[in-house]
Design a protein that fits this description.
The chain is elongated. It has 5 helices and 5 strands. The chain is α+β, with helices and mostly antiparallel strands. It folds into 2 domains: 25-59, no CATH class; 64-170, Alpha-D-Glucose-1,6-Bisphosphate, Chain A, domain 4. The protein has a 5-stranded antiparallel sheet, with helices on one face. Helix 4 crosses helix 5.
């Protein structure tokens, strides 16, 4: 008996909730494009935009191949072996490099990306020298100076060229 009453109340509740407020849709007022429908629904308060909830844009993804500074840095340092290249961390670190003429002196370069914009303060370049007199006796010094400035100029020049090429391709 109790089961029949609960069943009857459940059916009445479900039927009552279906009976009101459903309006037919006019196809002329609904955009055919899905993005436009989503935008219209959000503007009218019938949708939810998680980007607005969490205060972020969302959907903007930068890939290493589209970042001119990253590409220019890799092209500039291509003659050196890399020990670390982390795009998401914004850092490139080369391995110790020794030229043919000096067997007891090596150089290591690290490039940190402070911005994706092509400007002089977007990069932080450090140059380290390692001088070894005997195999176990090495001194490492930070000589971030003229060489780092030259590398920075070369990277920025290449990045500007890549940016100009990308803009001409988009046109």
């Amino acid at each position: 008996m109790n089961f029949k009453i609960i069943k009857l109340l459940l059916i009445i509740t479900l039927l009552n909730s279906c009976s009101g407020g459903f309006k037919g849709a006019d196809a002329r007022k609904i955009p055919a494009n899905m993005q436009e429908r989503q935008r219209q629904n959000i503007e009218e308060g019938r949708g939810l935009s998680l980007g607005k909830v969490f205060n972020n844009k969302g959907g903007d993804f930068d890939f290493a191949s589209s970042n001119e500074l990253w590409r220019a840095s890799l092209d500039t340092l291509e003659f050196m072996p890399l020990s670390l290249a982390n795009y998401s961390g914004g850092i490139i670190v080369t391995d110790w490099y020794t030229s043919e003429g000096s067997s007891n002196e090596s150089v290591k370069i690290s490039v940190r990306f402070l911005s994706n914009e092509i400007r002089s303060d977007a990069l932080s370049i450090k140059v380290f020298y390692k001088k070894c007199s005997v195999q176990d006796s090495c001194t490492i010094t930070d000589k971030t100076s003229a060489l780092s400035n030259d590398i920075e100029k070369k990277i920025l020049t290449k990045a500007a060229i890549y940016e100009k090429e990308n803009k001409s391709k988009k046109k």
